[in-house]
Amino acid sequence: MRQLQDIAWEQQPVTLPPKATVMEACRAMRDRRVGSVVVATADGRLAGIFTGRDAVCRVLAAGKDPAATLLGDVMTADPATLSPDQTAVDALRRMWDGGFRHLPLVKAGKVVGVVSRGDFKGYECHQHDEERDLWEHMR
Fold first, then answer.
1. Angstrom distances, CA of residue 90 to CA of 100, 109, 127, 138
2. Per-residue model confidence as pLDDT tens digits over 38-55
3. What is the CATH number of the domain that holds 98?
4. Residue 103 belongs to domain spanning
């Protein structure tokens, strides 16, 4: 079973401060071809996460100006995280339980990567599906 550090190896997640605008975040996501931005303090500590879904639901649909809206005002603060030494199935389980697609990886209080649903291979998804089905049958 792969560990998350194997998936996010040498990853440089898109990271912006809470004072950055939604427009800056969306441009960074477009340029890096990713679906989320890690919102971090100057010392690299996780403050939140901002996703494409947040841009649509919390900014555009709410009629806010992306050029004037700060990430700190519309991010998901204190998101769920995992350690990079946990497994892919741990991440899939946490994403399923929480209903989200992006999960920051934190080690010693610092953001070291982000995994998303698309990062996982078929056998990992298959193992998670089998586990979920087993729990459903036990209820």
1. 14, 19, 11, 20
2. 999 998 899 999 999 999
3. 3.10.580.10
4. 4-138
